[in-house]
Design goal:
eight-stranded parallel beta barrel, 17% strand, 214 residues, 8 strands
């Protein structure tokens, strides 16, 4: 694929604790110039980014990066993010509930966040590096049953990021209307092409320019 096409799949990302407003402005400018799918930024920067870059798709994260905040906190984060101008929400599931076998609770939390997000895109981060194959399959069903728009592999802050094996597994077990986002560990143009071929509609990376060039 041409690099111009690949950029359309990118959620241009900056989520480190030390990320500055200057870095966010640069990220937004790059996303605008290269026509990326969105910028994925901390919630505290959403309003400023929306005010200065009204034409951009802005994504933010909730329950990030561990996922073990309360459902009420995640709903409050979602409401505030939308008020501030976010277009898309990437939420982290409660991985402890998964380990407890409490999949109904996981599904219900996703459903409630999606209800809050309404017609805005909701991506559900399942953090595959902590999961068994069976848990990944069950979570594909949770995400599908709850009505989310995307299943996402990783936060980028766990012990590992995306893998092609996991993307292929997701493709087999999600509903047809659920899309896939790979994040973490996508480091080359060839990686991006392989993930897209495997079924990804979005690629989350902080290194798009280094990968694809200008």
């Amino acid at each position: 694929m041409k690099k111009e096409e690949l950029y359309r799949y990118v959620d241009h990302t900056a989520l480190k604790a030390v990320t500055t407003w200057e870095q966010i402005k640069n990220l937004c400018t790059e996303a605008k110039v290269f026509r990326m799918a969105s910028v994925c930024i901390p919630a505290s920067y959403v309003k400023r980014a929306r005010d200065q870059f009204p034409e951009l798709k802005i994504c933010t994260v909730i329950g990030f990066p561990l996922g073990n905040t309360s459902t009420e906190a995640k709903l409050a984060e979602t409401r505030q993010a939308l008020r501030d101008g976010a277009d898309e929400i990437d939420m982290v599931i409660n991985i402890g509930w998964v380990k407890n076998g409490e999949f109904d609770e996981v599904t219900e939390e996703i459903r409630l966040v999606k209800r809050e997000a309404a017609d805005h895109i909701l991506k559900v981060i399942i953090e595959t590096c902590y999961l068994t194959k069976e848990e990944k399959i069950r979570l594909c069903r949770c995400v599908s049953d709850a009505g989310a728009d995307f299943i996402k592999t990783s936060t980028g802050f766990g012990t590992a990021g995306a893998s092609l094996e996991d993307v292929k597994l997701m493709r087999e077990h999600i509903s047809p209307n659920v899309r896939i986002k790979a994040a973490g560990g996508v480091r080359t143009k060839e990686d991006m092409e392989k993930y897209i071929e495997a079924g990804c509609s979005r690629i989350g990376t902080s290194s798009a320019l280094q990968i694809l060039g200008v």
